[in-house]
Every structure is written in structure tokens, then in C-alpha cells.
Specification:
5 helices; mainly alpha; 78 residues
């Protein structure tokens, strides 16, 4: 996997997290609380400043009550 592919995957993840978080009316802080993460970490993921682990992606998906595949998949294609 090259850097371009990695960036595309991380961008999809970030966009999907933000989309689903906003769709259910959660702030970044509330999502972080539900996922057991630091409040600034969600924002850093959404801004592509941090690369979350698979475990972190699963924690976020559970907090959003979604299958992790919806967060990892291509943006806008559930």
C-alpha cells in the first residue's frame, strides 16, 4: 500500500466518523466520552492529524452503534 492509498483510507474514515457523528447529533466530546477516548483525539482523527488503530476504530463504531465496516468503507457508500 502506498501513501496515496493510506491517505484515501484515512480520509474516508475521518469523513465517515464526522458524517455519522453529526447525523445522530453527537459532539466530538460526547463521542469521545462514549468511546472511552480523549476528547481531542476524535477531532485529530477527523482532521487527519492522527491515524487510529483498528481497536480505536472499533471503539468509535460501537459508540456510534454502527458496524466498523461503515466507517472504513468508501465515504457516502454505506
Amino acid at each position: 500500500m502506498d501513501d496515496k492509498e493510506e491517505i484515501a483510507i484515512l480520509k474516508n474514515l475521518a469523513q465517515n466518523i464526522r458524517h455519522y457523528r453529526e447525523a445522530i447529533g453527537l459532539s466530538q466530546e460526547k463521542l469521545a466520552e462514549k468511546a472511552g477516548l480523549h476528547r481531542t483525539y476524535i477531532g485529530a482523527i477527523e482532521r487527519l492529524e492522527k491515524k487510529p488503530s483498528l481497536i480505536t476504530a472499533i471503539k468509535i463504531s460501537k459508540a456510534l452503534q454502527l458496524d466498523v465496516s461503515l466507517l472504513i468503507g468508501e465515504y457516502g457508500k454505506p
